[in-house]
């Protein structure tokens, strides 16, 4: 009944006889209402689809309507904290187990990409980003993918690259891969993220004493945050486009050669294994040459030999 009524409203209120402000207000109200009843929808009625199409077309063409719809989404605090009846507040609440709430957020995540071009970056960062990041960690993979799709849509719109950094630094490798593949070649957002990641890894590494060789050999304890960022940077060697790869290799080399010998050797071995396992015939030759240069630079301040790596590099060049 709600859907049929909403369709009737769109036919009578979204025509040329109604002023634009009223049309937008009605459209936003219908979308918000549909989000509230999303959990109870068990079939995709033709009336439902007709109504959704009509109101989305109306909303996505006007920035004020997009903002009004997005700002109607429950806040981050409301999502993670239970605000129900007092007699239920004694029960431990888990946001990811709330199926009614999750269904409503999925509705928003499906609609937001259609109007993300009209959203000011400040609104996206303040309202959408916290919830998007929260639901990226949802145990249901389908729900998490909706959140990733929202971010891909935002990045594709070419807006604030700083949010790309927020996303990347969280270390969601699968999500980072999706973002990198959707960004245009040589995107400034990728360069910004890489520079920020290298700066963060450098800062974290510099905060740990270089004299604790056992710590650097294992990359544990205080070095664990730095290692996570470095692992993400190494992963990006296989993901970024060819235009960005030289910059990434240069920044990584500058970072690696400044590390203590014991920590550096671990990363060089990890790099060797990663390059050896690569099937990318386009970037592999460049990576092999780059790793050779890294080994040479590393050998300048240590007498330690790396016969296994050097021998392996010769084989890599032939593959």
Describe this structure in words.
This protein folds into two domains: 1-160; 181-319. Residues 303-310 and 312-318 have low confidence and may be disordered. It has helices spanning 2-13, 20-36, 46-60, 63-70, 76-80, 99-115, 121-136, 141-156, 162-169, 173-182, 188-206, 213-218, 224-236, 245-256, 261-276, 284-299, 307-318. The radius of gyration is 25 Å and the shape is elongated. By secondary structure, the chain is mostly helical. 68% of the residues lie in helices and 0% in strands. Helix 6 packs parallel to helix 8 (141-156). The longest helix is centred in the middle third of the chain and has 19 residues, at 188-206.
The total strand number stands at 0
Q: Write down the secondary-structure element order.
A: HHHHHHHHHHHHHHHHH
| Gap between N and C termini | 66 Å
What count of domains describes the coordinates? 2
Task: Calculate Rg over CA atoms.
Answer: 25 Å
Number of helices: 17
Write down the overall mean pLDDT. Answer: 79
- Low-confidence region ranges: 303-310, 312-318
Basic shape? elongated
| Main sheet overview | none
Question: Structural class, judged by helices and strands?
Answer: mainly alpha
Fraction in beta strands: under 5%
Helical content stands at 55-70%
């Amino acid at each position: 009944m709600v859907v049929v009524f909403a369709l009737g409203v769109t036919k009578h209120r979204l025509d040329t006889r109604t002023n634009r402000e009223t049309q937008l207000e009605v459209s936003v109200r219908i979308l918000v209402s549909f989000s509230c009843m999303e959990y109870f929808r068990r079939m995709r009625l033709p009336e439902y689809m007709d109504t959704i199409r009509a109101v989305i077309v109306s909303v996505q063409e006007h920035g004020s309507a997009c903002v009004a719809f997005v700002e109607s989404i429950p806040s981050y605090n409301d999502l993670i904290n239970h605000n129900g009846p007092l007699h239920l507040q004694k029960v431990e609440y888990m946001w990811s187990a709330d199926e009614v709430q999750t269904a409503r957020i999925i509705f928003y995540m499906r609609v937001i990409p259609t109007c993300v071009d009209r959203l000011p970056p400040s609104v996206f960062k303040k309202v959408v980003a916290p919830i998007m990041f929260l639901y990226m960690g949802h145990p249901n993979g389908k729900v998490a993918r909706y959140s990733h799709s929202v971010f891909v849509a935002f990045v594709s719109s070419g807006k604030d690259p700083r949010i790309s950094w927020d996303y990347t630094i969280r270390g969601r490798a699968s999500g980072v891969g999706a973002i990198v593949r959707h960004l245009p070649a040589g995107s400034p957002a990728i360069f910004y993220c890489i520079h920020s990641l290298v700066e963060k890894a450098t800062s974290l590494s510099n905060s740990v004493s270089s004299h604790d060789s056992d710590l650097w050999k294992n990359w544990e304890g205080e070095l664990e945050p730095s290692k996570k960022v470095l692992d993400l940077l190494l992963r990006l060697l296989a993901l970024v486009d060819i235009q960005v790869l030289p910059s990434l290799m240069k920044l990584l080399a500058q970072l690696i050669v400044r590390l203590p010998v014991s920590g550096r050797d671990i990363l060089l071995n990890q790099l060797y294994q990663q390059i050896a396992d690569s099937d990318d015939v386009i970037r592999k030759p460049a990576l092999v040459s780059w790793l050779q240069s890294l080994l040479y630079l590393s050998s300048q301040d240590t007498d330690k030999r790396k016969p296994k790596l050097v021998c392996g590099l010769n084989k890599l060049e032939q593959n």
